[in-house]
Task: structure prediction
Amino acid sequence: MAGPTMLSVPNYSEGRSERVVRALEATVSARARLLNTHFDAQHHRCVFTLAGGGEELLGASVDGARHAIELIDLRGHQGLHPHVGALDVCPVVWVHPGDREAAAAAARRVGEGIAELGIPVFLYGELAADEERRERAFFRRGGPAELARRMKSGELEPDLGPAEPHPSAGATLVTARKPLVAFNLELDTPNPEIAREVASGLREAGGGPPGVRALGLPWEGDRSQVSINVHDADRVPLAQVVEEVRRLAAEHGARPVEAELVGLAPQAALEGYPDDPPIRDLDPSQHVIERVLGEPA
Result:
């Protein structure tokens, strides 16, 4: 592989058809090393973690976007996870801080390649044109229909690609970033309002730990879910997140009972993690970035 090894974590708006998920998996893994696949029906979303150099990740991202146009139609799509595209987000992730600029350059090339397919691309995070456009939520509010309205009115212009969403595939959000942790905590209450209250208090914007984003969602059976992104696991390990959720949930007579890791996490995220709530199916050899890449933790 030419250049540094980086990661890409494309998120597609499909989690119910295993046939479609495996077809996308085969497409992206033909161009880059597949480290992990995660999908579920309720979020209606699949997430692949890929490793490679800039050329490998570019090829995997563009081929995956092209195949997603063929396989995924957002019209009528219903899932818990906020989204605006068939290939919803496609970040390039640096593993080592010295590769930050290489990741940014690779992400811009990924955005250009996706835009050439007729999909508008919005750059967020560190690549955002201004502060307002840093958060994914800025683009996702109201979903694909609201995004289409904002673009048609001229309120929102893409950084790359056409001025209106693709009819069936929507738009794609692209950035370069350090590894983040996507982490779900299930509460022992079926009331999604409690999960929303917990998420509101957990978010950085609500006074929670720095770099934490969270949503409260309904879930299966007698549970609800707090879906969490931790943007800086070096500063905020999952043990801290769990304790904060435990405190906030207790205010409503609830508690976290099971956790789930989406994709991979750096070793720092798991330092000091408690025995309760357990992380479902956690295998450090498959879910810790340093272990999977064969690097010292």
Summary: The mean pLDDT is 96. The radius of gyration is 18 Å. Residues 6-177 form a domain with the Formiminotransferase-cyclodeaminase; Chain B, domain 1 fold (CATH 3.30.990.10).
